[in-house]
Amino acid sequence: xxxQQLRELETSGVILRKVYxxxxxxxxxSLSSYGDSLSAILNQLCLWGEHHVDLLxxxxxxxxxxxxxxxxxxxxxxxxxxx
Length: 83
What we know:
Layout: H1 2-11, E1 15-20, E2 26-31, H2 33-36, H3 39-58, E3 63-69, E4 72-78
Antiparallel strand pairs: 1-2, 3-4
């Protein structure tokens, strides 16, 4: 799954792939300048998400936030009891 997504991003020109001819095999990925152009868009999307969470909290809506902790995803429910 991860390999497929990386290949799609490489094909789209979003990332660059550098293969090292060694044992054990080594591959490095980096963001291309085209991929870097997504930075401003993704930052705006994150800001929108933060504002949306604030709006839901103002409306006393229960929400679930996902936090990434290494390899697992932790759900954190925010409701009246946790505010």
